[in-house]
Design goal:
76% of the residues lie in helices and 0% in strands. The longest helix has 46 residues. The radius of gyration is 23 Å and the shape is globular.
């Protein structure tokens, strides 16, 4: 089934804000224009850059603030607190994994420079944290992403978010969501594993050829930069795949394939969104590491308020990231349907209506 409308989200919201400014301060209802009311198709369909998507996200957040704050408070804040504090991480396992990674690096001819040691430690922490927190990712994180997509869809459908309907919807979509998320994890693990195998093989080959350690280190940096772009693209595809799983009748590898096709022509925008979100999350994480975990100033009494504040900040950045992924989906959808006309019923609304007709409460 199709989404609610093929009109560009930015244009619909901008048009609404113009109407709102002419009417006054009555902004309680979120009136969006139908694609049938726009006669100029060259104006109707616009691709959105990263800044436009951020502005659109802020508008949606402002018009549906209550629903998004509930999602952040009930789902994202507990997850962020556990992730940032590393409550579930066994540091002895992290140390052992770090040592093994350093041994592999030394064996393959890599010079054990400070950035190599730090990279091994960071990767070990991230790997152990992801493994230990997987139950939280597949419950709280997945629910939060689905709830954000539902609220964004309701906003574009000119309907208020009803969490009782959301729970009816999530019961029908849960298996599809879990299936897509598992495939998403396999894609990410596959990318990381392929990179490390290629990295070790390349470093070993360069070492056998007699290349100096300094040149090997530079080659590792270049390969790391290339991998970062590929990894970022994979994350963007996976995030859009989750959105597609909620809004369309596809899941698993089909959803990821559909996402890869959908973002063609908009890849740069998706990468910029990922870069901005990653920088924001890393910045807050760094503050938490310095101000809460590491006692490098005073008596540490400020941890009482700085810790919760940084958790809230981290949750807000994660919320905005999920919202931008949903808005990016609608933008790509509008961009890829330039030749289409008319309106279609929302996928989520269709599920709700069918559930209510069957007497599901």
């Amino acid at each position: 089934m199709e989404i609610t409308s093929v009109t560009s989200p930015r244009l619909r919201l901008d048009h609404h804000l113009e109407k709102e400014g002419s009417k006054g301060d009555n902004g309680e209802t979120f009136e969006l224009e139908s694609s049938q009311n726009v006669s100029d198709h060259s104006y109707q369909f616009h691709s959105m850059n990263a800044l436009d998507i951020l502005r659109e996200t802020v508008r949606i957040l402002r018009y549906n603030l209550y629903s998004f704050m509930i999602i952040a408070a009930l789902l994202l804040c507990p997850l962020s607190a556990v992730l940032m504090s590393n409550l579930l991480v066994d540091h002895s396992i992290v140390k052992r994994l770090t040592v093994r990674l350093l041994l592999v690096a030394k064996t393959s001819g890599l010079p054990l420079r400070p950035f190599i040691k730090q990279s091994c430690q960071r990767f070990a922490e991230a790997a152990i944290s992801s493994a230990m927190c997987f139950p939280l990712f597949i419950t709280l994180s997945l629910l939060s992403k689905a709830a954000v997509v539902y609220c964004v869809d309701c906003t574009y459908s000119r309907k208020s978010a009803d969490f009782s309907k959301f729970f009816v919807i999530i019961q029908k979509l849960w298996r599809r969501l879990v299936s897509t998320y598992v495939w998403m994890c396999m894609v990410i693990v596959g990318c990381v594993t392929t990179f490390f195998v290629f990295l070790v093989a390349a470093c070993s080959l360069l070492s056998v050829m007699g290349v100096t350690p300094d040149l090997i280190a530079y080659a590792v940096i270049v390969m790391g930069l290339v991998f970062s772009v590929v990894f970022a693209y994979a994350i963007v595809v996976c995030n859009i795949g989750i959105v597609i799983c909620v809004l369309e009748e596809v899941s698993g590898p089909q959803a990821l394939l559909r996402a890869g096709i959908l973002i063609k022509g908009q890849t740069q925008v998706g990468l910029l969104i990922y870069l901005g979100s990653t920088i924001g999350l890393a910045f807050v994480e760094g503050l938490f590491e310095h101000r809460v975990k590491t006692l490098s100033y005073g008596d540490g009494s400020s941890r009482i308020w700085e810790g919760p504040l940084l958790v809230i900040m981290y949750s807000f950045v994660a919320l905005v990231d999920s919202m931008m992924s949903a808005v990016f989906y609608f933008s790509c959808r509008s961009y890829s349907m330039e030749a289409s006309e008319g309106e279609c019923q929302s996928m989520l609304e269709t599920i709700t209506v069918s559930a209510e007709s069957l007497g599901v409460q």
